[in-house]
User: What shape does this take?
Amino acid sequence: MHSVVEKFLLHFVDTSALHIFNETNIQYISNCLFRNEERNNSMRDSWGNWEFPFTQYPYQEAYLDNYILNLLTQHGVKQKQIWPDNKKFALCISHDVDFIVDHSFPEINRRIWKTLKFSNSLQEKILLPFETAFGILKGINPAKKETFLYDKWIDEIDKHGFKSTFFYFNRPSFSNLNFVDCDYRLSDRVTYRNTTCKVTDMIKEMHQSGFEIGLHGSYETHNNADMMRKQNEGLSEVIQEEVVSSRQHWLKFDIHKTPSTIQNAGLLYDSTLGFNRTIGFRAGTSYPYQLTDEHCNALGVTELPMIIMDGALFKANSLELNQEHAIQRSLLMMDEVEKVGGCLTLNFHPNYLTNPNYWNTFCAILDEAKRRNVFNGTMKEIMSLF
Assistant: This one.
């Protein structure tokens, strides 16, 4: 039995019960965990990502977890209890920090230069001065200047007795930028806890309060270990502690290259594997599993699958749900994860706070998770259990 498969099965059963899995079972589980359908299929979206229309699996279900649990039932084997305090399932809350301040002058300036560098559209370049002027006018309006309010996210999570992981972007040099990369720097200023401070100071305070700081790797880091390592080292210097968790910006993930890139950059955990345009189970599981290289050899990186992302619920070219249906679909995902005893991993972006659909859906998920007495931890805390 492959070591990756064996370690994964130990989430469900003790070593003494591994004999119930035959060669056919092992092959199916391997295909899911090694992401063989991604490896053997060249279909990708316009961003080079694997998306839900390409899969042949029922991604709205935890199909791999259900497959294993059905085998346990057939052999009369009881599922293993893995979460502390006999909790039935876990909740991992995370946030990709793509913007720091609404209409920040430094960010506007960087966005201008980035547009000039990448855009081949004359229309975009003609409209750029007008869009810039609009951003500046909004920026000087005190009512519009700061709208992301990180305090509110922290307070809402604290209110439920939960903690979360914030993935911060450490902007690369101009020569290494991609058009979709974030425009803030860690040296920018933000209002946090009624004080104007640098982003680095906010990060330090979050870290000291028990929230995990992870790396939101820039777009081009998906196959560039040196760039990813440099960004991570800069973030580690801020908190004076090794940053071990990551999620790629735009969920950019090349199954052939990115797992080894993450390992070579010195990170231990990743939570990129999910969908940009829907919610569900990309690998059929809500449990952590080891990533593998091109030859399916185990790497020193463990993946915690992302199940629900806010943009996938609401954005155009995604599910485009209203608030009521977004909450319903999210709670159906929670039902599925609870049924298999896994981990529901959320990704909500702080810059969507002012949109009531996003914020109310986030609060509704936390309320229901609290009611169900879920186990919660940061990504690092959850992964350390295994």
Remarks:
- Confidence is low (pLDDT under 50) at residues 140-145.
- The chain is about 40% helix and 15% strand.
